[in-house]
Amino acid sequence: MPRKTYKDLRSSRWFADTGKAGFIHRERIAQAGYSREDYEGRPAVGVFSTWSELNPCHIHFRERAEDVKRGIWAAGGFPLEVPCMSLGEPYMKPTTMLYRDLLAMEVEENLRAHPLDGVVLMGGCDKTTPAMLMGALAMDLPTIFIPSGPMLTGKWRGHTLGSGTDASKWHDELKAGNITEEQFKQMETAGARSAGHCQTMGTASTMTSLAEAMGFTLPGAASIPAPDSRHRHMASDCGRRIVDLIWDDFKPSDFITAASFRNAILTLLALGGSTNGPIHLIAMAKRAGIPLKLEDFDELADAVPVLANIKPTGDYLMEDFFDAGGLPALMSQIADKLDLNSLTVNGKSLGDSLKDAENFNEDVIRPIGNPVSQHGGILVLRGNLAPDGCVIKVSAASEHLLRHRGKAFVFEDREDAFARLNSEELDIDENSVLILRNCGPVGRGLPEWGMLPIPDRLLKKGVRDMVRISDARMSGTHFGTVILHISPEAAVGGPLALVQDGDEVELNVDKRRLTLHVSDEELAKRKEYWKPRHPDPEGAWRTLYANRVGQADTGACIDCNFAERSC
Ligand code: FES
């Protein structure tokens, strides 16, 4: 394809216009301190940063944006930094999921409305990655993604501390009386000791890795720890590369295909990645106009075992993963399953990008013959309790619970669960099946409430896992025999809304079934008396969201009539 000239660029319509509008655009860019030499003849590149003091995972983005801009100037581009909503997991309540599509739309419209020819996206904390890529896919201008990079390994008294995973584990030990309040307090400053996203294989590491697997990043970018100087080099390399992508008019639609999504699913499984992966990939595919369904994950579930020995499935953390060779080393283990002709933003095929990958630690990145778990990381279950499907991260579940039948104990929502879980009157034992409902996309915005806590008195007896079922999500850093994303959700009258205390529920992972042992006639009778129980949403956005959001099995997207393309 011939290289573009300046007059072909979108930005020239603003800055090279000969009429009054062009005068105003130039006058105002001069107001910002730029002279004509700074922008004339140069592609205008958006540097979209999700920096915020309310998002510690991205606290290095101000500095990193300067690294990107250095690269853009050096390559003859004109960088323009644009702040975007930062979806910081630790503080946004009830969930950042409510805002994924808002950020996606913000990215898309910031690109559409402004004089930009391409964009470098800076994200990493959970939803920021899929959201920004959804916006970029919808707008389809040349794009590179910069993952924020994992934080350094947490360390406390000889233990490594993994984000989320170890907070849950040690909180349980505190409740069981095995550590003191003072010891638990010491961990507050030991676990998250640098900038960067969670360093477990949570949603952040999963989604940045999938962005790399699909070709949105430079090879190896997703695994570089945030404070490492190589992260800065990668950022300035992205600045240089985006300028070339713009002149070459190399857009997401030129390299994102059905094969890219298949590569992402296989990588998700080999990583033992987050259960949020399917939701976000389906949502991204919608923006790309590529058909992708929960069934596609089901079909590939046994194609590759879990090879990344990273918490919560395994033993190590992302810093170890980087030292072992990072994502290219992992992907090279499953290279024969991947479409190696898929292109990436470095202008090469995936096969070429993986050619020099080496695995330096076969305990961290396992070879295919010695997996962490023979099961693929995530399985799709169906049955009369989840007619449209649900998921389980089988690699983070307990083997003895994968075939389990027990009596349901139902909580109407999270508040109900926290109010009653530890009540002495509740007849719950380790064989009970805990049900949490009204927490799906319409009910509460699909928060990560699915890993209900084990009741204190069972913790003291040594119980560390139980079967838990919900229409909520779960943090990718969490673990246990937790069944999530029940579709359709309770708030729209799905079968989960009809379960009663004492009903028998059966999980059979081998058969991929989740069964409520209640007759269809009885369920129909209960449905007659069912009424929605979720609270009315507050505020304009949450009301719009609740009225327009789809179910988890279809990506929990705001319905926008996404057109499909052939690829
Ligand atoms: Fe930001 Fe986990 S809190 S990635």
How would you characterize the overall build of this protein?
The chain contains 22 helices and 14 strands. By secondary structure, it is of the alpha/beta class. The strands form three sheets. It has an eight-stranded mixed sheet. A four-stranded parallel sheet has the order 2-1-3-4, sandwiched between helices. Strands 5-6 form a two-stranded antiparallel ribbon. Helix 4 packs across helix 10, helix 5 runs parallel beside helix 6 (128-139) and helix 9 packs antiparallel against helix 12. The longest helix is centred in the middle third of the chain and has 20 residues, at 229-248. It is globular, with a radius of gyration of 24 Å.
Key attributes of the depicted protein:
single chain; Rossmann fold; Glucose Oxidase, domain 1; 3 domains; four-stranded parallel beta sheet; 14 strands; 36% helix; binds FE2/S2 (inorganic) cluster
Q: Low-confidence spans: pLDDT under 50, at least 5 residues? A: none
Radius of gyration: 24 Å
Largest sheet: 8 strands, mixed
Could you give the count of β-strands?
Answer: 14
**What CATH architecture label of the largest domain applies?**
3-Layer(aba) Sandwich
The dominant shape is globular
- CATH topology of the largest domain, by name, is Rossmann fold
In percent, how much strand structure appears in the residues? 5-15%
What percent of residues adopt helix (DSSP H or I)? 25-40%
- Side-by-side strand order of the widest sheet: 7-8-12-11-10-9-13-14
- Distinct ligands, ions and cofactors found in the model: FE2/S2 (inorganic) cluster
